[in-house]
Amino acid sequence: MKPAIIFGTRPEIIKLSPVIRAFLEKNVKPLLIHTGQHYDYEMSKIFLEELELPEIDYHLEVGSGTQAEQTGSAMIKIEKVLMKEKPDVSIVQGDTNTVLAGALASVKLLIPVAHVEAGLRSYDRTMPEEINRILADHASEVLFAPTEEAKKNLEKEGIVENVYVVGNTIVDAVLQNSEIAERKSKILKELGLKEKEYILVTAHRKENVDYREKLEKLVDILTSLSLTVVYPMHPRTKKRLEEFGLIKKLNKDNIIITKPLGYLDFLKLEKNAKIIMTDSGGIQEEAIILGVPCLTLRYNTERPETVKAGGNILVGLEKERVLYYVTKLLEDKEFYKKMASAKNPFGDGNAGKRIVEILLELKAKGKLKVRSSNFLDPLE
Questions:
Q1: pTM of the entire structure?
Q2: What SS3 state is found at 113?
Q3: Which residue in the list 59, 115, 204, 234 is annotated as catalytic?
Q4: Can 34 be counted among the known catalytic residues?
Q5: pLDDT at 94
């Protein structure tokens, strides 16, 4: 079997790493295609090195651009690689422009697509990620849903064949790497932090950082927090803060802004934070796996399981709401304990192995292919 694994951002690298490892355990070397959607060296290269993944076969250097430019460039470059390599299946994960480009380029070449983390829905079509995940699901032949809720979302859209609930590979990745991070990472000492005495913040989504009014709200929230704030800043966010003249407002004694961190350092920061505040879907998942209360800086989420489980609260960019829950978490021990002990809804950490076993079985049975139907009536 010759699988192609297509990715372009650090969350994709992290979540696909258990799939890559599971293939290698079966003595199958996957073709690794990195589009370079996250084009910053520190945000991709470090992750690949830390996770000890095999060498990338193709780095396409797509880089930045508009939604159409980035997706179109990725499609063109991915197509050329697929035409040359002719893999048996293309595996994509999540909801990025790389996912959409990989899915479309593959299915149009009659290469079946396997979508890892299929069926997630925020039901907010203003988000580019929502469009990407919907279209990727409908272009896929094999859909790996992380939860029963995700499977139900697919059923609502008429997708019922080759849907498998396998859990989420983020659990695999967190469990495999958190112990390594605790042992190897020195980030707490480097930043002068103590366990459970800081709030970890990330914010990078377009709807939060590309508009002055919303970015001003975010800055106002962060500067109103009394506890130490650690903010590993995405280049996109830093650029917008500088453009809007807001970066200096974050120059406070209790706010620590760092450059993008390697995965092990970031994982250690997550595990030892008192509270996590984020607009990232993946970090919402990691927070509940690690038992850290999460306040999501969005008004909806494609990870509703985390909210239903009680480990995540949607706070948007509403200052009063954010400060209410931060204060409650800091002062109400029972409330904190309830959020921190919320049950992880994403599985047992064996999703990567299940995915690989299913794909190998489908291939062995001759069922790993783009399907077609015959609508001719039988002869009278």
A1: 0.81
A2: strand
A3: 204
A4: no
A5: 95
